[in-house]
Design a protein that fits this description.
This protein is an alpha/beta fold. The chain contains seven helices and five strands; from the N terminus they run αβαβαβααβαβα.
Length: 216
């Protein structure tokens, strides 16, 4: 028997003994999927208790359905598509996500930024995430009537346009069944912009049917 074989056998034996005595353990296995969420206050739990937002609820649903995935919530209150676009390359490099959810654009509208600029930023973010090997979900937003019908329709259309151009799934309206119901005021904080905790499960229900098939 060669000395090299004895050496390898001795090393394996030592490793087994160390594991049994608690001195050594194999490295932790990485999650099968990493979901990066780049959003604004709607995804950053603005004004509500930590752990009650739709992103936190998503994490619990993944665990409940035994889907091996970790969440990286990189959402920032007040974020615009320009801010998200500038931050995304570093986030992709650091976290190497398998999935990227882009929930931005509302603050662009609040600031009256050009719709073409918002669309270009969303398109660039989607393309960058795809080039990094991630599956992308675009999360759309709609504006209240006081923004004017023409502007609101043009704004809503940019999400579908980007989704179609880049061939990615779209959540048409994150606040469906929250902002478009007769009792909508009950779902919002006093500022009439940010949803209460009661609205968060409904928001997740809008995202989940689009995201889930991408995780299987």
């Amino acid at each position: 028997m060669s000395s090299s074989f004895i050496g390898r056998r001795h090393f394996i034996a030592l490793g087994a003994a160390a594991a049994l005595t608690g001195l050594w353990s194999p490295p932790a296995r990485a999650a099968a999927a990493t979901i990066l969420i780049v959003g604004d206050s709607l995804s950053a739990e603005y004004g509500i208790e930590r752990g009650s937002g739709w992103v936190a609820l998503l994490e619990r649903r993944l665990a409940r359905e035994r889907i091996d995935a970790r969440i990286v919530n990189a959402s920032v209150s007040g974020e615009t598509t320009s801010g998200g676009r500038s931050r995304l390359p570093a986030l992709l490099k650091k976290h190497r996500p398998t999935h990227v959810l882009i929930e931005l654009g509302g603050n662009d509208a609040l600031r009256g930024l050009p719709i073409a600029q918002t669309q270009a930023n969303l398109d660039a973010m989607t393309q960058a995430a795809q080039q990094a090997g991630a599956k992308v979900v675009l999360i759309g937003m709609q504006l209240p009537p006081n923004y004017g019908g023409s502007y609101a329709r043009s704004f809503e259309a940019i999400y579908r346009a980007v989704a179609d151009d880049r061939r990615v799934p779209l959540v048409p309206f994150l606040l469906k069944n929250v902002a478009d119901v007769p009792n909508a005021v009950d779902f919002f904080q006093p500022d009439r912009i940010h949803p209460r905790a009661e609205a968060q499960p409904l928001m997740l229900d809008n995202v989940w049917p689009i995201l889930k098939p991408l995780l299987r």
